[in-house]
Design brief:
41% helix, seven-stranded mixed beta sheet, binds glycinamide ribonucleotide, 7 strands, globular, alpha/beta
Length: 204
Amino acid sequence: MKKKKVNIAVLVSGGGTNLQALIDAEKSGIIESGKISLVISNKADAFALSRAEKAGIKTAVASKKELGQAGMEERISALISENSIDFLVLAGFMCILSQSFTKQYDHRIINIHPSLIPSFCGEGFYGLRVHEAALEKGVKVTGATVHFVNEIPDGGEIIIQKAVTIPDGSTPQSLQKRVMKLAEWKILPLACELVSKKILNGEI
Ligand code: GAR
């Protein structure tokens, strides 16, 4: 008999390298308790959508620009019910979700953030800006964090963190690549499997 799996939607905004890591991890069996069945972008031209199409995954757009915050969230909620989604993974999704939205999906949304929370996180800290801030401060170690999403930006319960050293002479771009390669692309699939398994087993 085929094993039951958690139905996953991945939310994206840009290049989608973290989405790619999830797709590859499902293929290689690192993610075995969940199935990525939908990719939702707030941007119609996100390259992440092409990655999903190439992998044969259904895609949808929920544009904040066109629909506004509430309209975007209504569209995401409709997509969740239409596609029987159990679990949302924010993989480079650059919109903050409202309290009324996150409240409905308690312990059903995770996010990857490119620093060791509570450093360099919260509103205004996203993408390259996070690495710029780390370099400005002169920290010698940074990393990535996967956490549950609640009403506080980057404030939910931490699931996995991985530290990465910062070599002298790093630029925001080189540091972003290093953190992705050494931390993000590893811990996001691991957290995705961990949480999917807990949902399947009724532990959360
Ligand atoms: C990743 O570094 C991700 O951690 C970050 O944006 C990048 C998206 O890259 N997310 C945030 O900053 C969220 N606050 P990707 O589209 O190639 O996965």
